Amino acid sequence: MPTTPDKTAATPILPAGLGFRMPAEFAPHEACWMLWPQRPDTWRYGAKPAQQAFVAVATAIAESETVFVGVNDEQYENARNQLPAHVRVVELSSNDAWMRDVGPTFLTHPDGRLALVDWEFNAWGGLKGGLYFPWDKDRRIRTKIAEMLGIPRFEAPVVLEGGAIHVDGEGTLLTTEECLLNPNRNPELSKTEMEGVLADYLGVEKVIWLPRGCHLDETDGHVDNLCCFVAPGEVALSWCDDEADPQHAISREALDVLQNATDARGRTFKVHKLPQPGPLCIAEEEASGIDRLSSSHPRQPGDRMAGSYVNFYIGNAVVVMPLLDPTRDDQAREILQRLFPEKQVIGVPAREILLGGGNIHCITQQQPQP
To answer: Annotated active-site positions, please?
Structure first.
């Protein structure tokens, strides 16, 4: 099987045409992939507090599936000593630690084969709004993982991050117009053309376009911070009741779209509201420990962060959720436990991850069982 589409053929060989598709996150996993944080202009105090949070996330997920953590060589011993022995540490160089976005989108085939999609990556906007430069090491991660696993790699001709999409495994994909139609990603593609790419590479049949992502989300509105599938026909949506908060209008818009849409199987959506934490802002002492570089995204005291309980990870036997706000954590945990009664909901203190610009879902990428 070719590892890339055959550009010389009249009809390129694309994953969906070969029978591959992207399964839902709530389908069984073979493993979870993460990266180790160390970038000093993203993570404060040399990433030491963030590393503790990543260890907690990896440990929780490893309760029910193998966890791989990719590490730059100079951090290998540090990571190996901090992570539990059953978490597998591999040398896998990166520019930062957002595996959801720089890692592969895995595909499965009915005959038991595994493959991956290698999207283009430009650090969430390239030189026109991107969050750091360079991103050369991040760009090679998908190729390296394909080599490590010995599976086909399909190169996709579009810029797309894993956090920009969420699927139900039955033909439906969630995304936002703010992200996938942003001119700093693929300015030459129309909405219809983007839908064609998603169908060709992921095997989806219907795309649900939400207007915007969470307020001030620096990824240009990734859907995984706003809304995600928890079961076929069911989604969790970050919700804000305060009409004076900009997030209220965003969540309301998304709810209107979902209530007036059907999925690929013709089902109407059942929407479960998760309360928004906070609002959460960067404290003075949290901003002071970050290196200031011209090539990276500034983080200033008082800046509001795009905190969301929707940014959780669905494991085989666990759901790992961020703990972000003592006044809302328990309510969010109770809702998630109702949505996943057969799984253990584990809360992990995740403010350090949020300070870097994302959360638990952003730093993880599931490898499905073939």
So the answer is: 362
